[in-house]
């Protein structure tokens, strides 16, 4: 019984939250990795792209709600999501046209594009705050729980409760569907193959008649969708605040580097590694131990390895260690 | 017909191509020879759209194609291979070939959804075509091999194979024979002649092997220090004192001696 309670506590406080966080990070990291694979630079504006897409989605969610339109048990934001994606697509295509294209045509070295993307980041940052403000927003509606702690205790008779929030389930399901679609697209469509070819050998792909501007355009569209979905899922699960999304850049980059920049499968693996490290290192394990260890062996403290205040340090350390010892990422396998 | 009009390509103060003019007649196999550093590859890069010329024009069938990008030239039927063979390293040899025509169709995201059956049929036809090409080039056994794993000479064949996947008009081959053994070189030579005869491909071939050039090419253009030094039938070129002095030296005399 104690073991079961420990397992439930572990599920409830570590595995379930880490899984949904991993799904959000993976979607974010996929966007970063796609830009790196096709446009060949690390896109610092990605966190703020997510924030912009989420902000627009929230605005439309409010609009829909003001008309009394909701998605029933599901969050209304899911109906507003396509609008958010469309707006973000437009923003990214416009940015490409106004900013990146010039540097692409002049064959700028990647480092210049990285710096340029930081400029874009500041602009998007300001734009998002201008549109929706800097405050924290909660926009999740619909059913809160699939099963809550009290129901679970009643159902199983266990002492420990297990809550599965609907946003967690939605996050995981949507992430799986999106990733599945992305891989189907990359492997089975002409455009997807052209993208892979372009990423593999740009010169040769041009010689095969691949239009680079078309590939770049499609890439931005996919990145807009991935970023908005990742941002909205994160916002539903936790809350939306522009600054948090800017901070998310660190774990997202860590995830894509751990997975090997340009490698989509790796981005997912990287997201899982970062999310589970962060959650398990900042979790106070005393509760789980209390079910497993006899009283006299129980630690005096709360058995938390890293304070939650330092959670970004974990991504940072993993990022640095991977860059030092295995800069091509932990996950071998082909890029794109 | 391709007309190269007074092309110049300067890298800073260095004049890699320094006013080259010549014509490539439709249906010909034109040879382009010259010592290392003569500017042959740079000229190819300009003609095939990889580099913008400092000045000069390239005309294809009466149309100015100067400065068009490689993918636009591809759609006009102008293809090239690289001196250092390129390949899609993460794909199999067969997939490498099947990549070629993919840029032509399916340029719209919609068609991916709306024309799925057509695409599947097309995919099948492509695979068959790729297999025929591999057969033609005597490398069928490599079809499933990862393209990054095959030998340098085999990559050269794959490069040639790429040009056979579509109906090209003009193909520029940059040192197809480099790093390729004699037997393979003959295979490549035969393939070039067959493509020229049966499919009407026009070729412009950079090659250092004089036997190969003499057997295949008419006319032959000689470049040195960024300029065209001489052009004409292979025999004339090899007898041209200026050419022998300026570039070919003993290598050519030996080659000629061996043939006589
Ligand atoms: N991108 C470049 N920048 C500077 N110099 C170059 C560049 N490309 C080629 N060159 C120089 O131009 C000259 C001609 O090179 P290339 O066209 O490759 O000769 P070839 O193919 O006839 O051997 C060489 O001296 C080479 O170093
Ligand atoms: Mg060369």
UniProtKB/TrEMBL annotation, chain A:
A Pfam family annotated for this UniProt entry: BPD_transp_2
UniProt GO MF annotations: L-isoleucine transmembrane transporter activity; L-leucine transmembrane transporter activity; L-phenylalanine transmembrane transporter activity; L-valine transmembrane transporter activity
A cellular component term, taken from the record's GO annotations: plasma membrane
TM ranges: 20-39, 51-71, 77-99, 111-132, 162-186, 214-236, 248-276, 312-331
InterPro entries listed in its UniProt record: ABC_transp_permease, BCAA_transport_permease
Subcellular location per the Swiss-Prot or TrEMBL entry: Cell membrane
Topology of the protein relative to the lipid bilayer: Multi-pass membrane protein
Lineage top rank: taxon: Bacteria
Keywords: Amino-acid transport, Cell inner membrane, Cell membrane, Membrane, Transmembrane, Transmembrane helix, Transport
Entry's Gene Ontology BP terms: D-alanine transmembrane transport; L-alanine transport; L-isoleucine import across plasma membrane
Membrane found in the keyword field: yes
Primary location class: membrane
Family per similarity comment: Belongs to the binding-protein-dependent transport system permease family. LivHM subfamily.
Name assigned to this protein: Branched-chain amino acid ABC transporter permease
Species whose genome carries this gene: Jiella flava
From TrEMBL, chain B:
InterPro entries found in the cross-reference section: AAA+_ATPase, ABC_AA/LPS_Transport, ABC_transporter-like_ATP-bd, ABC_transporter-like_CS, BCA_ABC_TP_C, P-loop_NTPase
GO CC term (a single one): plasma membrane
Highest rank taxon of the organism: Bacteria
TM regions (residue ranges): none
CDD domains in UniProt: ABC_Mj1267_LivG_branched
GO molecular function: ATP binding; ATP hydrolysis activity
A Pfam family reported for this protein in Swiss-Prot or TrEMBL: ABC_tran
Domain ABC transporter: 2-250
Keyword entries, A-Z: ATP-binding, Nucleotide-binding, Transport
UniProt similarity note: Belongs to the ABC transporter superfamily.
Name of the molecule in the record: ABC transporter ATP-binding protein
Source species of the chain: Jiella flava
């Amino acid at each position: 019984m104690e073991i079961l309670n420990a397992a439930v506590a572990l599920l409830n406080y570590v595995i379930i939250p880490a899984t949904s966080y991993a799904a959000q990070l993976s979607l974010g990291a996929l966007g970063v990795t796609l830009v790196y694979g096709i446009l060949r630079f690390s896109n610092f504006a990605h966190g703020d792209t997510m924030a912009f897409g989420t902000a627009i989605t929230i605005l439309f969610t409010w609009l829909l709600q003001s008309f009394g339109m909701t998605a029933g048990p599901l969050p209304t934001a899911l109906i507003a999501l396509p609008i958010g994606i469309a707006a973000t697509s437009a923003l990214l295509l416009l940015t490409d046209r106004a900013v990146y294209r010039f540097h692409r045509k002049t064959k700028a070295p990647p480092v210049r594009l990285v710096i340029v993307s930081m400029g874009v980041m500041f602009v998007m940052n300001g734009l998002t705050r201008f549109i929706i403000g800097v405050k924290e927003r909660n926009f999740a509606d619909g059913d809160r729980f699939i099963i809550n702690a009290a129901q679970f205790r009643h159902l199983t008779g266990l002492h420990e409760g297990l809550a599965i929030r609907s946003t967690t389930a939605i996050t995981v399901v949507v992430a799986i569907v999106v990733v599945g679609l992305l891989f189907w697209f990359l492997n089975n469509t002409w455009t997807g193959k052209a993208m892979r070819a372009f990423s593999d050998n740009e010169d040769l792909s041009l010689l095969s008649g691949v239009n680079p501007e078309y590939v770049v355009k499609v890439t931005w569209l996919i990145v807009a969708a991935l970023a908005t979905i990742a941002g909205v899922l994160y916002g539903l699960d936790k809350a939306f605040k522009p600054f948090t999304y800017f901070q998310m850049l660190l774990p997202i980059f860590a995830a894509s580097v751990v997975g090997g920049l340009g490698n989509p499968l790796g981005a997912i693996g990287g997201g899982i590694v970062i999310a589970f490290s962060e959650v398990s290192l900042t979790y106070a394990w005393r509760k789980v131990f209390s079910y497993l260890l006899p009283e006299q062996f129980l630690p005096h403290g709360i058995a938390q390895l890293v304070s939650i205040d330092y959670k970004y340090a974990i991504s940072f350390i993993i990022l640095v260690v991977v860059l030092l010892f295995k800069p091509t990422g932990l996950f071998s396998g082909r890029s794109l | 017909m391709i007309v190269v009009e007074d092309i110049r390509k300067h890298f800073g103060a260095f004049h890699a191509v320094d006013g080259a003019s010549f014509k490539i007649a439709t249906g010909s196999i034109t040879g382009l020879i010259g010592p290392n550093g003569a500017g042959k590859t740079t000229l190819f890069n300009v003609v095939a759209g990889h580099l913008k010329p400092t000045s000069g024009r390239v005309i294809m069938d009466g149309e100015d194609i100067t400065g068009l990008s490689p993918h636009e030239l591809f759609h006009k039927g102008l293809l090239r291979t690289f001196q250092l063979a390129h390949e899609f390293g993460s794909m199999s040899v067969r997939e490498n070939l099947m990549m070629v025509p993919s840029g032509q169709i399916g340029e719209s995201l919609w068609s991916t959804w709306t024309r799925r059956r057509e695409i599947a049929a097309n995919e099948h036809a492509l695979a068959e075509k790729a297999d025929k090409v591999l057969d033609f080039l005597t490398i069928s056994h490599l079809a499933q091999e990862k393209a990054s794993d095959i030998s340098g000479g085999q990559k050269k064949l794959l490069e040639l194979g790429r040009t056979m996947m579509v109906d090209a008009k003009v193909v520029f081959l940059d040192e197809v024979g480099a790093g390729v053994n004699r037997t393979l070189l003959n295979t490549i030579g035969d393939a070039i002649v067959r493509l020229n005869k049966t499919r009407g491909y026009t070729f412009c071939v950079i090659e250092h092997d004089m036997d190969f050039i003499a057997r295949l090419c008419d006319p032959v253009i000689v470049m040195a220090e960024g300029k065209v030094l001489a052009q004409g039938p292979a025999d004339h070129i090899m007898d041209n004192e200026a050419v022998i002095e300026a570039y070919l030296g003993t290598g050519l005399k030996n080659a000629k001696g061996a043939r006589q």
